[in-house]
Specification:
LptD; 13-stranded antiparallel sheet; mainly beta; 8% helix; lipopolysaccharide transport protein A fold; Organic solvent tolerance-like N-terminal domain-containing protein; OstA-like_N
């Protein structure tokens, strides 16, 4: 599992790449599609420093600041080859795949279908739209919106800007993680909860909503904090979507100093105002 942790830390250093990607997208690089007319699929755009086309094998090879866009998916890499006959895209070197959900997948090697929606990924690293991160030894994407990560680690904690190699406050390690975009949930099998790199709990199965979920009944992402009053605490919120204008959140907190603290919050929005009621109790 050490490789997964290393990948998670590397994502922090790659946040700068997001800005670089956006800058590159706005650059004046000439579209390579005009240099190799008729060899790409419809609705596919490619640009790069250089492009070659092997007519015998039907392979388009682009190198140097390569960008391919298909629909709402955009793929960046140092080198990309596209096999027209098999409809396979192979990307190598500083690969980044931007999805319609604003998630970014990093790797040094991806083998994808021509629509950039399915394929295999070595050394996968994911930056979700809410800033949380996941990484694993390998990954597989399917056309139905399921992403599977093997030997994975996930954490919503931001990494220290001065030291990306420092262990996050807490993280979940799992032998198998599935992100089902249609269900908008992330599932873990054989998961270990670690605090400052130390395993503190094990569950055979665990799931929580993915970052795209705004309102849905179920368990929310747990949080681990440390303060002078309660010490080290673990909080597991449960969100109850009562109605479009009403909801409640129950969040038991386990603390090292005070034991169990039960907290809750009720919210309601009406035509002429909104209400919020919260409180806590120690059993």
């Amino acid at each position: 599992m050490n490789s997964g942790t290393s990948f998670l830390r590397v994502i922090g250093s790659r946040l700068v790449a997001i800005a670089a990607i956006v800058t590159f997208s706005m650059s004046d690089t000439i579209w390579a599609q005009s240099e190799a007319p008729g060899v790409l699929q419809d609705n596919v755009l490619m640009r790069a420093d250089s492009v070659t086309y092997d007519e015998d094998f039907g392979i388009v090879t682009a190198s140097g600041h390569v960008e391919i866009s298909h629909g709402e998916n955009i793929l960046f890499a140092d080198t990309i080859s596209y096999n027209r006959r098999d409809d396979i895209v192979i990307a190598t070197g500083n690969v980044a795949l931007l999805s319609a959900e604003d998630d970014v997948v990093f790797s040094n090697y991806m083998e994808l279908t021509g629509d950039l929606k399915s394929g295999t990924i070595r050394g996968i690293q994911i930056l979700f739209s809410d800033g949380s991160r996941a990484a694993g030894v390998s990954g597989r994407m399917t056309g139905d919106g399921r992403n599977e990560i093997r030997k994975a680690v996930y954490s919503p904690c931001e990494l220290c800007p001065e030291n990306y190699w420092k262990e996050p406050l807490w993280q979940i390690k799992s032998f198998n993680v599935i992100h089902d975009k249609s269900l908008k949930r992330i599932f873990y099998k054989d998961a270990f909860l670690e605090v400052f790199g130390v395993p503190v709990a094990y569950v055979p199965f665990f799931s929580h909503p993915d970052p795209s979920v705004v309102r849905k009944t179920g368990f929310l992402t747990p949080s681990i904090r440390s303060n002078g009053v309660l010490g080290l605490t673990y909080e597991q919120p449960f969100f109850l979507n009562i109605a479009p204008n009403r909801d409640a959140t129950f969040a038991p907190i386990i603390s090292f100093k005070e034991g169990v603290v039960l907290t809750g919050e009720y919210r309601e929005v009406r035509k002429h105002g909104k209400y919020k009621l919260n409180g806590s109790i120690t059993p």
